[in-house]
Amino acid sequence: MKVTDISQCLSEMFDAEVPTEDIDNAIKELVEQYKKDKYSFEINHSGNGFHFLTKPAYQASISILLKNQSKKRLSNSSMETLSIIAYKQPITKSSVENIRGVNCDYAIQKLLEKQLIEIKGKGDSIGRPIIYGTSDKFMEYFGINDLKELPTIKDFEKEENSIGAEENQTK
Question: What is the pLDDT of residues 95-118, one digit of tens each?
């Protein structure tokens, strides 16, 4: 839930405005309360909202119980398509296809079904193509709050020169 959703709900319930700082303070108290060991879940902030999530120590047993149905892996083509949309958004399907070099109809349809991407509008070019971007569920799925948290190329590059690194030595 987002703080704005909580605020709207409380305002309607009490027929009065509830200051967001009161909501923020209440959330902080709940976060501290659920950090205690007696709870198997905690409040997590991601996707610009708050979620009750299972604590990592309980993840294995919950996964077995739910038989890993909560999150199915994305296919390589869906992941590639999603990556392009995430980094290049807002973007049209034809632009994604130009980058990937293959048709992306199926991958985009699956990503829309999983609500990881959404239609952001229509382009100004000929035919007014649909423009895609990531959704709040994308942020939640990957556990990020902002697109700036996406990894950059330098996060994947191997350092060429580093002090104290072992080198392959031949005799």
Answer: 999 999 999 999 999 999 889 999
CA distances to 33, 44, 56, 62 from 37, rounded to whole Å, are: 10, 16, 12, 17
Cβ neighbours of residue 29 closer than 8 Å, sequence gap 6 or more: none
Q: How far apart are CA 121 and CA 136, in angstroms?
A: 16
2: tokens are 């987002």
CATH entry 1.10.287.3610 includes domain 3-66: no
27-39 pLDDT per residue, tens: 999 999 999 989 9
76-155 and 3-66 share a CATH fold: yes
The overall longest dimension of the chain from CA atoms, in Å, is 81
Other C-beta atoms closer than 10 Å to the C-beta of 21 total: 8
**Where are any strands of DSSP class E within the chain?**
41-46, 49-54, 91-92, 117-122, 130-134
The whole model's pTM is what? 0.56
* Domain range 76-155, CATH architecture: Orthogonal Bundle (1.10)
Angle at the Cα of 48 (from 45 to 49), degrees rounded to 5? 55
Query: 161 or 119, which is more confident?
Result: 119
Q: Residue 36, SS3?
A: coil
